Amino acid sequence: MTDAAPDDKDDLAEGTLMSHLVELRSRLFKVFGSVFAIFVILLPFAQKIFDFAAEPLISVVPGGQLIALSPVSPLTATIMLSFYIALFAAMPVILYQAWAFVAPGLYRKEKHFAFPLLATSIVLFYAGVAFAYFVVFPLIFGFVSSFTPDKVEYQPDMAEYVSFIMMVVLVFGLAFETPVATVLTVWTGLTTPEKLGKARPYVFLGAFVIGMLLTPPDVISQTMLAIPVYILYELGILMSRVFKSGDK
Fold first, then answer.
1. Helix, strand, coil shares of the chain as percentages rounded to 5?
2. Neighbours of 109 (CB within 10 A)
3. Alpha carbon 69 to chain centroid distance?
4. How far apart (Å, rounded) are the C-alpha atoms in residues 29 and 35?
5. Which of 140, 133, 131, 89 is nearest to 232 (CA)?
6. What number of other Cβ atoms are within 10 A of residue 246's Cβ?
7. 151-172 pLDDT per residue, tens
């Protein structure tokens, strides 16, 4: 009997690992399937999507026209933009599948807090995207265009523009997840709300350093990232205190 016990444990561990891998494959299939489905739906509207995404820049470009430096830029730029939009649109599905994969390993009390955090992370991500498009982009492009010399025709390349705005949108979307990240550090026991409060001066300085590293080299975008990150950090401290009080 003692000789059979290790074999039983090995079989159990192998079966558990295989079941997790099968479930992970199923979750990933749903994620890729949702992104692909949204992408296919958006393809017929690719030009309109590009027109909408380019509006903050077109509004300050003389003549309201961008240029295509590559012969295939009109195709690649619009398709890539549609793919990025599909990826962002599928974010609720992506985050839910991630939560559903780890949820069976959580206690009931942990599940009670995990789902509100999931919903909050989705809302904050889209809030960051909207903030970048409606607030940051007009300020950045207006600021940059004001420095264009009179003898220079300011007409950015459409492919470069898509790469630029998707990078900035992703940065702001992730930066707005600061409250969720703050709560998770408290949840895992890495820190406490009290310690987070004492770290305010360092976080304030770090927010501007992050803004300098992750945004274009202009003071507007750096400040527009650093200030919301710090405000959201304060929100995260409040949320972590609520979490700690509800965990008692």
1. 85, 0, 15
2. 10
3. 29
4. 10
5. 131
6. 10
7. 788 888 999 999 999 988 988 8
For the stretch 65-101, what's the b/e string if a residue is b when 16 or more beta carbons lie within 10 angstroms of its beta carbon?
Answer: ebeeeeeebeeebbbbbbbbbbbbbbbbbbbbbebee
**In the structure encoding, which two tokens stand for residue 182, read together?**
């703050």
DSSP states along 182-201: HHHHHHTTS--HHHHHHTHH
pLDDT tens, residue by residue, 66-119: 888 888 988 999 999 999 999 999 988 988 888 877 777 666 666 667 777 888
Single-letter amino acid code for the residue at 144: V
Closest CA to 81 of 163, 15, 138, 2: 163
| Total count of residues recorded for the chain | 248
Within 13 Å and on the Cβ side, how many CA atoms surround 207? 23
